Amino acid sequence: MMGKRGYAVAVLTAIALVCTPALGASAAPPTSTVDLREAVTVEGVRAHQAEFQEFADLSEGTREASTLGFRLSADYIEGLMKAAGYEVTRQPFE
Fold first, then answer.
1. Residue 56 and residue 62 in contact, taking contact as beta carbons nearer than 8 Å
2. Core vs surface per residue 42-58: b (16+ CB within 10 A) or e
């Protein structure tokens, strides 16, 4: 059984370990998120949501894997990624 002093030492040790940075660790360089925050808008998000809902509506209300809604969603994303300059590879799965 641990006494008050032993408990206090254990708590202080745990705090010291959690609050002490690892040797050689350094903070990540500052990253600006301004461009990302300006690119992602409520209107843009809603437009994508509307597209996905349309795909679900065309597929009995679902975009579940192996349905038309899923295939339309995957095609939509592939098109967006290619338009943004990415090389897209799709892996089929069972």
1. yes
2. eeeeeeeeeeeeebbee
Find how far residue 34's CA is from the centre of its chain. Answer: 18
Query: pTM for the complete prediction?
Result: 0.62
pLDDT in tens, 7-27: 666 766 767 666 666 555 667
Only one residue has tokens 């008050």, namely: 4
Amino acid at 9: V
CA distances from 50 to 36, 37, 81 (A): 21, 21, 18
**Centroid of chain to Cα 82:** 20
Q: How far apart are CA 44 and CA 22, in angstroms?
A: 41
Q: Are 63 and 77 a contacting pair, CB within 8 Å?
A: no
Closest to 57 in 3D by CA, of 69, 67, 72, 49: 69
pLDDT per residue over 47-64, tens digit each?
A: 999 999 999 999 999 999
